Amino acid sequence: MIPDEKLIDRIFNCSDEPGFNRIAIELFHFQYNNNAIYRRYCELLHAKPAEITSFREIPFLPISFFRSFQIKSTATETQVVFSSSGTTAENPGQHYVTDLSVYERSFLNSFSRFYGKVSDYCILALLPSYLERSGSSLIYMTEKLIEAGGNADSGFYLNNFEQLHQKLNLMKRTKQKTILLGVSYALLDFAKEYPVDFPELIVMETGGMKGRRKEMIRENLHSLLCEGFGVKQIHSEYGMTELLSQAYSKGHGIYYPPPWMKVLIRDTYDPLSLVGDNITGGINIIDLANIYSCSFIAVQDLGKTKADGSFEVLGRFDQSQMRGCNLMVS
Q1: 212 pLDDT band (50/70/90 cuts)?
Q2: The overall pTM is greater than 0.90
């Protein structure tokens, strides 16, 4: 096990880059020593833990490994397996979570950091594609946020648009602070069929059309949603099955991670090299909350970082662009 029993407190109280670096290096050594898949990957890259002094030097495991292997850094029994929405062409990614309390602490702290007390909000969730399958980390997070908020009007909606429309109008009349969290295609369908004028509403899209609609560029998507809900900006949540932390955008597609999560950008043509701010490349994520799996992940999104630590998501790699990341994955 990790020798420092106060590590979780240190992670969620991390406030500066030196502190982040110390924890990242500590986690890297722990995961290198206790995660056979990650260690083998590092060995193939000739990475030597004793020589690594900065989080920027730590190898990032391609996210595709979560589809092919159990990525665990502990022998502790798994509490839940979160799975991504896979296709017929690929296996879903799976995250073997051994301590749900870490996940809960991560998303509750992150929410309060960006939005204040969850008890101030009515949370309405329009997540049909997630509700229709099991193993969604987003559903788990939303359920716990609703539970923590304690608002009797909060809840999930599948295809019952009329009831959701009535609830939104009620929240508007009562001046209740409200978040509508939804998958992109469902928000578009609802806004077209039941448009509302609710300027105070926080509309938060989780991204993706899930095969239900043609993918759209962010500007067009957000323009249609702003028109359909009568709001000036669309918020977004950036998270995934393989992470226990989330970043949030309050508009313009600029995401801000919590202090225990950091985004770096790798060179598009040399995935083992990092580039600076304002340069488009592949997104690498350090999520210190991923204590018992892997905290260092190269995802399949394209993006760029800003000097203040925020980042944009600009698209996704296709499989032909993932060269250089398949050392162990067939």
Answers
A1: low
A2: yes
